[in-house]
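Format is chain and fold; as here:
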Amino acid sequence: MRAFLKHTLIFFLAFALAGAASYYAIRLFTRSAEEVVLPELRGKNIIYVLETLTNMGLNPKLEQSTWDETVPRYAVISQSPEPGATIKKGRDVIISLSKGKKESLIPDLRQVDLVQAKILLEKNQFTVGRISRTWSDTTPKGKVITHFPAAFSIAHKGTPCDLLIS
């Protein structure tokens, strides 16, 4: 029984000594890294952000890229840690990037009747702009002759589409 207690005591003493040595080694290692204050990155262009973080000795990491109606394309939406935080060089800074306003292709509305054209625009999240009418010998009455923005062009969601109806 005495031998068991002796071996148990030696084991716990060795375990405590190893833990204390590890703790002080980690503290010494982490204290030696230089600290920097993280600037405000939100709203800044990604090129500027990458240059700034790299020059500060930090590692930029892209978390996600999302559509945003207010933040321009290729600008930072959010960052972690927050601006003003003191972090050590070599650490990661997580950023989220804006894709800008949501865009889509304008559907081809030529030779489509007005009611169907309105449905197609609404389905693709565009709005009906000005509707003008003129006579055409090549397009049947009530159908779209042309429209602006043109078919298959890229436009922001919610953009009004002007229609010229026969």
Summary: The radius of gyration is 31 Å. The mean pLDDT is 89.
